[in-house]
Amino acid sequence: MSSFVQSALHVAHNVATSWLAHEEIKPNGTVPSVEVKEDQADKSAPLKLVGKNILVGVPGAFTTPCNSHIPPYIENYQEFKAKGVKHIYVIAVNDAFVMKAWKQHLAPEGTPIQFISDDKAALVSALGLVFDATDLLGGPRAKRFAIVTDDDRVVSVAVEQEPPKVTVTSAKSVLASL
User: Fold this and answer.
1) How far, in Å, CA of 150 to CA of 53, rounded?
2) How far apart are CA 37 and CA 124, in angstroms?
3) Of 122, 127, 168, 172, which is least surrounded by CB within 10 A?
4) Mean pLDDT, the chain, as a whole number?
């Protein structure tokens, strides 16, 4: 039994270390091609970053700060399009079912904004934008971030220093930076 527990602890440590091992993405970096999900839990593919894109990372679907963070992106979608943005992706370490339900909750009339499930924290980990939220949210989660890309090349990165706050990653701040 003791060796089983030691083995399990070793595996848990290695997984946790791999989440936190990547350096935070910087401007001129490249968004890695990592499998994520949208709408269907059994189908994954890398994001297709063509033209100008915005990747908005949130710690958790349906959480109070995230429920107020994303609606201004939905409401100002046409302003983003007018500034040349092709796609806006909302990314969270939640399963595809939760992300689909959250999108329906926030935009019952629909929205072209894509809600992406990074259910294994693979993308946010590769971006160096994962943090341990075990005590509050049960496991690793995305930091609150906004990344502007030109294709897969990073143009700018904004990361909230305190995940519950929405300042530099707000729709207003990102629109002003474009």
Assistant:
1) 6
2) 13
3) 172
4) 87
Q: What is the domain-level CATH number for residue 131?
A: 3.40.30.10
pLDDT band, residue 146 (cuts 50/70/90): very high
HSE-up of residue 95 (Cα within 13 Å, Cβ side): 4
> What is the extent of the structural domain holding 124?
51-177
CB 58 within 8 Å of CB 70: yes
Out of 56, 66, 148, 154, pick the active-site residue.
66
66 is catalytic: yes
Dist. CA 1–CA 75, nearest whole Å: 55
Q: Which pTM value belongs to this model?
A: 0.86
Counts for the chain of helices (H) and strands (E), in that order? 8, 9
10 domain-assigned: no
